[in-house]
Specification:
It contains 19 helices and no strands. The chain starts with a helix and ends in a 6-residue tail after the last helix.
Length: about 375
């Protein structure tokens, strides 16, 4: 290996600064979402037929759009920026953003999230609006919270609880969100994240909660049992597809938190220095591909920063107003809020035009769905 290649390899493993980590996490999540979205709901065997020409933006004429996964992550980042250091106000701000997001008729929304937002509109406060569900919705809002608040565990847990419990009240949902947030934090801080060290830090974090928000060691130990195959696979180099099959997910990863998070962690830790390979690996497992790729992208992107995200994937996103340009600007604002300790106003997004965008997006998704019934392209 020549000196130039060695220098590039070393640079790719250097820890990004806070702004780079936030930007990498948001863009990594967004690109993962956009790449995985056209393949959502397809089993692994059929996905292989769709990927004969490789993984690339494919939703609309070789371009990509984002789903609710990215939108929730960006709304979370905006609420953190607008109310830095104020977990309760952050929660209320995120709740209002979710209300208006729902009012603009998004094409994709989970049943638990939809029911919870309806309760928010009916006047339920965020701490009582969630329904008992362990869907993976809170996991897509978790990476950015982990990246910016991992060094302030009390605030991080408060924000994660606020973000999670306004839509999902099953303690498993919060456990999964905490696991993803901690993984994103560890990824952003270490040149090479070790899974056993990550588990130790996660246990310490749960212990520090002292039973608050329903987080306790009993919940952690049950979750740890789910992670055993992940730990063994990372130690032994087991095939990721075989691990999914052993977990009963050979036909695709479901939207259940304890299915989504373990496999996302397995891929994120195995391919922490290779964003492209990480996304390709999680997408090939099938099922809820946009969300699993978003979670993996949010974690790996926090580690690598923007530079390892394939340029053609990033440029392939043709969306508005929530797009890579918006995410980059928001990352800078959030990094400044963390550095200065002061909140900042976030750019207003035009509601009526977002409604038109959502109607267009729905048309594209339905057209793409019918296209998938034909032979793979």
């Amino acid at each position: 290996m020549n000196n130039t290649v060695m220098a590039h390899a070393k640079a790719s493993r250097e820890k990004p600064d806070m702004r780079q980590a936030i930007e990498g996490s948001l863009l990594g999540l967004m690109v993962g979402d956009a790449i995985g979205l056209p393949l959502e709901g397809i089993g692994p065997r059929r996905i292989e037929r769709f990927l004969t020409k490789g993984l690339h933006p494919r939703l609309l004429l070789g371009r990509a759009m984002i789903s609710d996964d990215s939108e929730h992550a960006l709304m979370t980042a905006a609420a953190l920026t607008a109310h830095w250091g104020q977990p309760q106000r952050f929660s209320r701000s995120l709740a209002w953003r979710l209300r208006w997001w729902f009012a603009r008729l998004p094409a994709g929304v989970g049943m638990a999230t939809a029911r919870s937002i309806i309760k928010l509109w009916l006047g339920f406060p965020p701490r009582y609006s969630g329904v008992f569900s362990a869907g993976n919705g809170p996991a897509m809002r978790a990476p950015v919270i982990g990246v910016v608040l991992g060094d302030a565990p009390v605030q991080m847990l408060e924000c994660l609880a606020g973000s999670t419990q306004m839509t999902h009240r099953d303690p498993k949902a919060l456990m999964g969100a905490v696991a993803v947030a901690q993984a994103a934090w560890v990824a952003s801080q270490q040149k090479e994240a070790d899974f056993d060290a990550y588990l130790a830090s996660l246990q310490t974090l749960i212990q520090s909660a002292k039973g608050a928000f329903g987080l306790n060691l009993s919940l952690y130990e049950d979750f740890l049992k789910i992670l055993r195959p992940v730990q063994e696979a990372l130690t032994n180099g087991d095939d990721i597809t075989q691990v999914a099959q052993q977990m009963g997910l050979g036909k695709g990863v479901t939207g259940y938190m304890y299915h989504t998070v373990p496999l996302s962690l397995l891929v994120a830790f195995r391919y922490q220095d290779d964003y492209r390979l990480a996304i390709e690996s999680i997408v090939r497992l099938g099922g809820d591909a946009d969300t699993t790729a978003a979670i993996v992208g949010g974690i790996v992107g926090a580690h690598t920063g923007r530079n390892q995200i394939p340029v053609e994937w990033l440029k392939g996103i043709a969306d508005w107003p929530m797009n890579p340009v918006y995410a980059t600007a928001l990352a800078s604002q959030l990094a400044h809020a963390k550095q200065s300790g002061q909140s900042a106003a976030v750019r207003w997004l035009p509601g009526p035009l977002i409604l038109l965008r959502n109607l267009f997006f729905l048309t594209v998704v339905l057209t793409h769905g019918f296209r998938r019934l034909l032979p793979p392209y």
